[in-house]
Design a protein that fits this description.
The structure is a homodimer of 348-residue chains.
Chain A (H helix, E strand, L loop, with lengths): L3 E2 L18 E14 L2 E12 L6 E8 L4 E8 L12 E3 L4 E3 L2 E9 L6 E2 L15 E10 L2 E10 L2 E9 L5 E8 L3 E6 L8 E9 L4 E2 L1 E6 L6 E7 L10 E4 L4 E3 L2 E9 L5 E8 L7 E4 L10 H4 L7 E9 L2 E8 L3 E8 H7 L3
Antiparallel strand pairs in A: 1-26, 2-3, 3-8, 4-5, 6-7, 8-9, 10-11, 11-12, 12-13, 14-15, 15-16, 15-17, 17-18, 19-21, 20-21, 21-22, 22-23, 24-25, 25-26
């Protein structure tokens, strides 16, 4: 496998991002959706922020208040024996779960795909009650000339996927929740297939311990049905515990290539691929037995949540797959590989 | 509150049902959807069956095999220290969860709504891989002259809601999964409102510990979007732990009446009501602070899963709400109350 990691990795770091307000610090800039638009490469970066605590025993949590239309702070004491702070991402009280950071989405632009100019201000921020704990992990699909964004909305109601569209990455039309709790890692296929729109998504069955990739279809991109499980984890392999769609799929001669992420028994996040039938995308033709790409460098192995490479978008151009990926839930990085190597990994 | 329980309760019991095969016993006939159709009251009863075990230490589990198109048996040993049999409904191994019974749906017909003739054979049986562990809890909505059935499909993929339609309760057209894992307690409003179809459903957020009633809308009844949380549990009250929609809602002058179920801290299932705005059904006008109906009789308090009254359907006729309900996850029962009492309970 010939993987080329950019020598400029990480290409975007938290220190490159201006916080949304003076009392916040940026702790993560990662999991960016990507699209080539108007001659530029546009990233929609997930920016995770944490309220700056004024006391070492106090953990502050930023929550978007729907009525106040602003982020308010909630305090938790580390001395509170009933609250669980063991997962760095979560604050778990006996009655409720909170996040330690609140995310928004921010545009970054580049002419060469590596050196990015990042907007000073948030591009998309939480704006409804299903987004009170933040919006995360955008995927960008251009469908019939319209730019659609699927993103994760987190709130006390659960983890959902919402849909928005834009013409200019400045104003956005929002269509609300398209996949209800708990559901993330959702993305739209970039074209109709047999007259229908298709999406991948990742529902959760707690009762049956399942985190699998499902497919849905739609007449209008806003309402979804005919949900089917596309594939589950491969027990004992790199994606043996849970999986989710990552990059918006792209067409090759052999079908649709979907770059997805998998988690193994050690909670290590890698990327692999699945080849889907070009006309019947619910049919799996081939799938990575070994990952395409795994955390190896320092910036992938260490960070807010180490041993993670996680993609929300890739560009397939000139026979190369350019993958934008979050490293260790901390930074945006870039790697590319020839499509021939992806297909070889798939055995086709 | 003037509740009248039928003197003939339970009106359908497991012993009234012919098993689907000689090696099965019927352990539950409950949670029936209801519709008035062709001058009769039709119930679609959930029939739960258990393979008859040949040895006291062996638990048998019936699973629909999609390839074989028949139910196959799987054996579990009670001596296996790694398997959890503590919930009477579940068999939990370290890697998978199974159900102790497999359900199908069976038609029962009555001219007076109390004395039912039950079909000798199953009406709807598991028929796809999302139905391998059975189909349960039908709700029947007549929408623009077509009879639609939402039902719960259980399998190793999770708990989903599927949609089917019928013209005669003999042949059924199936439309697959409309609400993906884990999701149950879904039903369709019986008419378009402002040009759109509406449904209630019950997604689960394990991370945020939520079991709430959501609303979705659709252009075609098969694809659903704009999911919104309608309401959550009322902490400390009869429906303080989890809730779900029960009967298909019906119109009164004041709006839509939805009979829903709630579970309290003692795992007791009661029925209450919510009044929704007639034109904007996502607006809650009033809600039961006290249950309409709670388990009190022997047949409600004792059975496969005691202290349960659970409805999948009601008939609103002549100013009375006739509720068909599952008692103790074992039998079908009937109770009725004047609509005026339901509205009084709601404070309207």
């Amino acid at each position: 496998m010939s993987i080329y990691r950019s020598a400029k990795n990480p290409i975007i770091e938290p220190k490159d991002i201006k916080p949304s307000g003076g009392d916040f610090e940026v702790i993560g800039a990662f999991n960016a959706g990507v699209v080539r638009f108007g001659g530029e490469v546009i990233l929609l970066v997930r920016v995770a922020e944490r309220p700056i605590s004024t006391h070492p025993d106090i953990v502050l949590c930023g929550i978007y208040d729907t009525a106040e239309r602003q982020i308010v702070l909630q305090e938790f004491s580390k001395d509170d024996g009933e609250t669980d702070f063991s997962d760095p991402r979560l604050i778990i009280t006996p009655s409720e779960t909170y996040l330690t950071s609140i995310s928004h989405l921010r545009v970054a632009r580049s002419s060469n795909g590596i050196d990015f100019e990042i907007d000073d201000k948030p591009t998309m921020v939480p704006a409804s009650e299903v987004e009170n704990f933040g919006i995360e992990d955008a995927r960008i699909s251009v469908v019939e000339g319209v730019i659609y964004i699927t993103y994760v909305a987190v709130s006390p109601f659960g983890v959902t996927t919402c849909l928005a569209s834009t013409k200019d990455f400045q104003t956005f039309e929002r269509y609300g929740v398209i996949f209800c709790p708990d559901n993330k890692d959702a993305l739209l296929f970039p074209e109709r297939i047999g007259g229908r729109y298709y999406a991948l998504h990742r529902p959760v069955s707690n009762l049956f311990k399942k985190n699998e990739i499902w497919m849905a279809e739609s007449p209008d991109l806003k309402c979804w049905g005919n949900h089917r499980c596309l594939m589950g984890p491969q027990r004992g392999l790199w994606d043996g515990v849970k999986i989710g769609a990552s990059a918006v799929p792209f067409r090759v001669n052999e079908g649709w290539v979907e770059i997805y992420h998998g988690v193994d028994e050690e909670n290590r996040y890698c990327l692999g691929a699945v080849l889907l039938d070009g006309e019947k995308p619910w049919k799996v033709i081939a799938r990575s037995e070994k990952p395409l790409f795994e955390p190896e460098t320092d910036y992938e192995c260490e960070g807010f949540f180490g041993n993670v490479v996680f993609s929300c978008g890739a560009l397939f151009e000139d026979g190369k797959v350019g993958i934008y990926y979050g490293a260790a839930d901390t930074t945006v990085c870039y790697a590319e590989m020839p499509i021939a190597d992806v297909l070889a990994n798939l055995g086709v």
